[in-house]
Design brief:
Blueprint (H helix, E strand, L loop, with lengths): L1 E4 L7 E2 H7 L8 E3 L7 H5 L6 H13 L5 H12 L10 E5 L2 E5 L9 H19 L3 E6 L3 H10 L5 E8 L5 H8 L6 E7 L2 H12 L2 H7 L1 E2 L6 H17 L7 E6 L4 H11 L4 E8 L4 H8 L1 E3 L19 H8 L4 H14 L1 E3 L2 H8 L2 E5 L2 H15 L5 H13 L6 E5 L7 H8 L20 E4 L2 H13 L1
Parallel strand pairs: 5-15, 6-7, 6-9, 7-8, 8-16, 10-11, 10-15, 11-14
Antiparallel strand pairs: 1-2, 1-3, 4-5, 12-13
């Protein structure tokens, strides 16, 4: 299995190099040269199997011969043994043909654990074999950082530096990062937005001397291994609801578009998905793109669903690449223009391609609050604001002739202030996580300046 850049100016690489590089040298994102697939019989065979078994089957298709199958099996078994629920991603019915897929039973109580726990084991296996240590630099709008710290803290071959936007994530989200005492973890509070953090990460990756000096890599959803791992729960939930004999639809709270793109990957592999509703808050760049055909950046608004406060969704480039029939020159032109002007007019044929699967729905703050309350009153389920955005979008998207699964991306206790303000109920952390509030925090505060943060990363790696 070989991987190519969406911008076409980087050589094709194998799975291991794609994982360790994260971003391609030409600034593009890696995708497989060809999509692997499962037959209907193979997909039906996932029914009733442990989550780790399905994960190993999916990962093996993308890793090819570069990682031995017994190693893949062991990594998946270890990764998903860290989850508090035996099903890893259990389903909860909230209405006729409507379900929540609970993605928050991992160590940091957010869906990012599903991918990050596996990614950490991939890194450790690969780097140990190469006798190599890398520096992970990632930007987080709340949950990626906590999941990365939980997965990589204390590991021998990885240093992890996390950038988060100051004042724009919840205290619980912050503490999952900043209470880590291991010396291979560094957290930086950036005086700006998540988009600022993400732009700084991209600038760091394009600095060749820095990349070489600290052996830089990334675990944001720009890393294709993250997308592979996230595609697994599309298979397990769909099969539990009758796939492949009947299609299933999904409503996906969306920020950086990695979670929704993982559904596209599952569909490319043969899973019958009828529709993916891309649910955004008022930061609606993705909803507008799918509904109006223009991908245009606006000002970032702070909301009660902060992990989605994004106006530049990195993984949209991967979908655009597919939608323009893998024309790398056109993709490079479009996203160079987006970086400069903040907008792309999606070609009509490409927009039609996207609309075959994706629909966009933007949800207001008032609607999010109403959905938090209604879900509690109607089902007894206390959900977080991001899940509420997904649930509201599901209702707005209209009926489909398939069961609809809302991806429930975080435990309500990660956003206690917002949930309590809406419902009058304060969600409690699981007992094992309650000590976070008493632990000292450790982080740096820096301006949203790429050079200052690159200097910080260099000093961290050298220390």
């Amino acid at each position: 299995m070989r991987y190519v850049s969406t911008r076409g100016e980087a050589p094709a690489v194998g799975f291991v190099d794609a994982v360790l590089s994260g971003l391609a040298p030409d600034g593009g994102l890696y995708v497989p040269e060809t999509w692997p697939s499962f037959s209907r019989e193979e997909i039906a065979g996932f029914r009733g199997k442990p989550y780790a078994h399905v994960a190993a089957e999916v990962l093996a298709r993308f890793a090819g011969e570069e990682i031995a199958r017994d190693v893949v099996d062991t990594m998946c078994a270890e990764a998903y043994a860290t989850f508090a629920h035996a099903a890893v991603v259990p389903l909860v019915q909230i209405a006729p043909d409507a379900f929540l897929a609970e993605l928050f039973h991992g160590p940091s109580l957010a869906f990012k654990d599903v991918a990050m726990q596996l990614l950490a084991r991939l890194y450790e296996h690969i780097l140990a074999g190469q006798n190599r240590t890398q520096t992970i630099l990632c930007a987080t709008s709340g949950d990626t950082g906590g999941a990365a710290v939980e997965a990589f803290r204390g590991r021998d071959h990885v240093r992890v530096c996390v950038l988060f936007p100051e004042g724009r994530i919840s205290e619980v989200q912050r503490r999952f990062m900043t209470t880590a005492a291991e010396p291979n973890v560094r957290c930086v509070s950036v005086q700006g937005t998540f988009d600022d953090c993400q732009a700084i990460v991209k600038a760091a990756f394009q600095d060749k001397s820095l990349r070489q000096a600290v052996d830089l890599t990334g675990v944001n959803s720009i890393n294709f291994a993250r997308i592979v791992a996230q595609s697994v729960y599309y298979f397990t939930t769909a099969v539990a609801l009758g796939a492949p004999e009947r299609p299933v639809s999904f409503s996906v709270p969306s920020g950086n578009f990695g979670d929704a793109f993982a559904g596209f990957v599952a569909r490319q592999m043969g899973l019958p998905i009828a529709r993916i509703v891309v649910a955004t808050n008022s930061n609606d760049i993705l909803a507008r793109a799918f509904e109006e055909g223009r991908y245009a950046r606006g000002d970032v608004a702070a909301t009660q669903s902060p992990a989605m406060d994004i106006q530049s969704a990195s993984n949209f480039e991967r979908l655009y690449f597919e939608a323009v029939r893998r024309e790398a020159l056109e993709t490079a032109r479009a996203f160079t223009a987006f970086n400069e002007a903040g907008r792309i007019d999606i070609p009509p044929q490409a927009h039609a391609f996207m609309r075959e699967l994706f629909a966009g729905v933007a949800v207001s703050e008032d609607e999010t609050t109403r959905t938090l309350v209604a879900t509690l009153n109607e089902t007894g389920e206390l959900i977080d604001p991001h899940t509420a955005v997904g649930a509201a979008a599901m209702r707005r998207a209209g009926p489909v002739e398939a069961p609809m699964v809302v991806l429930s991306t975080a435990h309500a206790a990660k956003f206690p202030e917002a949930v309590s303000a809406a419902t009058g109920v304060t969600p409690g952390l699981p007992r094992w996580a309650q000590s976070l509030a008493d632990q000292p925090e450790r982080f740096d505060r820096l301006p949203a300046d790429a050079e200052a943060i690159k200097a910080c990363v260099r000093a961290f790696a050298e220390s």
